[in-house]
Amino acid sequence: MSAAGGHALRLAGVHTHIGAYHILHGVDLEVPAGGTTLLLGRNGAGKTTTLRTIMGLWKASAGSISFGAADLVGRSTPEIARLGLACVPENMGIFADLTVRENMVLAARSARSADHIDAERLRWIFDLFPPMKRFWNHPAGLLSGGQKQMLAVSRAIVEPRALILVDEPSKGLAPSIIQNMISAFRQLKAAGVTILLVEQNFAFARQLGDTVAVMDDGRVVHRGSMAELAGDEALQQRLLGLSLGAHQ
């Protein structure tokens, strides 16, 4: 999908209520097409709620969310997915009792079986995440934490996507797996995929981010380049309460 004004995704004045709680208080966010945008902030700032609101899992009570020329507010999650968006939730969203193959078939909506998954795309995924090929017929619940995260990302990209939302992909992963994830996301970006990442690991964020938005109390309080934030420890302290330099 083409992105108007160079932005794949644009949120303007988005409010979200969950029951009696007012979580998002007028979020303004622009995600440039073809880049990686990091959504940072302290715990409880509203980052996950923002991703879930974009995907229609929670309904925006005010404001607009546009993906290219399409307005997402009021659309169902399946409708939003069909526009070319995918989301990797923090809990990964895999089916533990199913095999890796069965998980992938379910995610590939156009495939009735593994034989119907695009072979070239599957080879690309296997190159990104070799354990997916090695454990193709193993139950997903038996995979390690890092392998489950690989499966979650693989499910999101088994069909071509214009925009991928990922919630804390490095959480709980060993450093070697984190580097594998960084390489995979770089390859996705090189393939033209726009990425919006929520992340708490600031060294991970620094290596991947082109642009950054920082949230606090349900609002975006800072927007800019990752290079600017990474080079300004005083700004890191003010916005995040700690410095990227302490997490190398």
From TrEMBL:
Gene3D superfamilies: P-loop containing nucleotide triphosphate hydrolases
Record-annotated ABC transporter domain positions: 9-242
Highest rank taxon of the organism: Bacteria
Single GO term (MF): branched-chain amino acid transmembrane transporter activity
Keywords annotated in UniProt: Amino-acid transport, ATP-binding, Cell inner membrane, Cell membrane, Membrane, Nucleotide-binding, Transport
Positions in coiled-coil regions: none
BP terms from Gene Ontology: L-amino acid transport
Protein family: Belongs to the ABC transporter superfamily.
UniProt-recorded name of the protein: Branched-chain amino acid transport system ATP-binding protein
Phylogenetic lineage: Bacteria, Pseudomonadati, Pseudomonadota, Betaproteobacteria, Burkholderiales
